[in-house]
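We examine the record.

___
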Amino acid sequence: MTSDRPQTCQERSSATTPPTVDSARWYRDDSQTLRPNQSCSTAWALFGIVLALVYYSGEVGHCMSEKTEETPKHTNHLIEETSPYLLQHAHNPVDWYPWEKEALEKAQSEDKPIFLSIGYSACHWCHVMEHESFENEAIAEFLNEHFVCIKVDREERPDLDEIYMTATQMISGSGGWPMTVFLTPDLKPFYAGTYFPPDARYGRPGFTQILTALADAYENRREEVLRNAENVTRTIQGYLAADASSATLSEKIISDSVESMKNRFDPVYGGFGGAPKFPHTMDLMLLMRHYQETGDDESLRMTTESLDKMARGGMYDQLGGGFHRYSVDAEWLIPHFEKMLYDNALLARTYLEGFQLTGNKQFEVVGREILDYVVREMQSSEGGYFSSTDADSEGEEGKFFVWTPQEIQEILGDKDARIFCEFYDVREGGNFEHGTSALSIPKATPEVAEGLGMSVEEVNEVINRSQPKLLEVRAQRIAPGLDDKVLVDWNGLMISAMAFGGFVLEEPRYIDSAQQAAEALLAHQWNGDRLLHTRRNGKSHLEGMLSDYANLAYGLIDLFLATQESKWLESALEIHKKMVDLFWDSEEGGFFNTLDEQADLIIRTKSGTDNAVPSGNSIATLNAIRLSSMTGDLDLEKQAEKTLLAFGESLKKQAMAYPMMLNALHYFERGGEELLIVSAEEQGFGSFVQPLRTTFAPRLVWMDVTDERIGKLNPLAADRKAVDGKPTGYLCRNRACQSPTTDPMDILKEIK
């Protein structure tokens, strides 16, 4: 493992300006880090106190961490869980509990602090900390004696992850996974960090020292610990609770945000910021909408250069399709090799929107390859989509994906290997670890061809026949671990991308895939009243959160647009209505992230910031606007406006933290467009939507009102008739429709 790689599994956060928290000011950067300014803060004062305790008690900690004999087999309370991440720890000597009533009551009755460890299956440094510390008998014995140990899969409980990640950032100044948090029995955090080595190294205190110091502090300095826990909790509540806003909405927020993006844009490699580098898909979506609206060439250039450079880099799986999670460098060359469902959902849609906007065929190819990868490797037999694949295989990060020139030569022979290695920049010594290379395309094909003395066609022919051969060999390697749980919210994003891709590319396979996933979720994780967040091995459980309801409705809307089957729109409306019943803030607008009835959270959050995935409030706002267009329901439009206003002050101050919310604001301010089609004949509907496949029209929805069930959903559909017996389109805005036309190209000219 190279020493300059981040020692946490990081997540992109897009906030760029600091919220005010008591006397301290903080900002988030792209490595999920909260940094303090020069002023003092409760959190940093606590951090210093604990560090002093660590080094004061360091000698004891060092003795405790000495290795014992081989750890025997153990079974703890995680053995009945379904999460692959939790099951990975079910035989640790640490007496892990899941986050459940039994564990929380145990902490209260025994008056012990809680050691909370949060991670996820694909997280490399989570595996490292497990091997180094959680499989260590001496460390486990100390943990079991002094703490109640709880292990949480952040993908199952994003609500807990949000709260305690905020605490981790405020206390330590940085965040990531594994997340290491120490709580009082009433769930208030008093110390936190990320990865800790068993003994001091990497500039980090040792985990054994941390444990000794904290156990001592809780036993002998209880009043100080409880006071600091109260202070940290109040700070979290102030940061995560939504404040009432008297803001007004303005599209100037969007233009100001675009100017901020221009300042952060990397003119050499595309994307935003430096290493580690994340895709920023929602920012790119906003830039495309801004370009369409204003003709700002710089917005278009930032988008196309970012999409091009990402697709050429090693962050993109050049053989199998799909993107790894992020690049550890600014060049998009070496990725953190895990693949996440949500990343690929957002990237597929972004590339296909880029194709619609520019006509760039390479963007179409990348979008298609992402969806092919998901259908091939990430869809369950039931229909739902799996969550992620690991970064590691055979104990080494990236081993499954990287190559040496010798391996390629053995597979392809000398001549083709020379061309393949030149094209994908595979060299002696490699660009990764142990002399291996992640495949990338640093040169354009004409440049490669010229250097080899070949034609572009000859180079392409070699690449096209070589890729399947290497993919076949790669498939025989030991694959990274698969996290095969099905999460409603991530599935909703992929259903949206798959349905959108099926429509844009006119590919029935993708629409079939989206329908299978939607049917599976509605059958197994929705009972007509509540959604269950996660499913694995035939078991669905955990109450759904705002993002589950919002994202599933989002996917169902796109599935309706792709198929014109009314059942998908009806289901979207049903789930959206239930979401309003369960999560709507009737006093200040917007949606809470969790149910009111949940007693195991120290705060009921209401957030709109978009991180690696869009916030539930952002997607819920987009849904309300689109559903209002489709049904004419003005209450839905007012709901969207109230949600935007609830975050209006934050949008003004920290616009970069809300890219998907800004996309919703753009939609709301510009207004939606509805295309009502009277097909009049079997192929009539298709003739009108065909031009839309390659047209960038993010504020347009379309409905075949010849279908009586669809026509009943939109009052504008009443009495729409075909002209001269021909397929006829009505373009509507602001609850009024233009004159009918039988020429689909007339519609394209009018779309704004």
User: Anything to note?
Assistant: The CA atoms of residues 549 and 575 lie 6 Å apart.
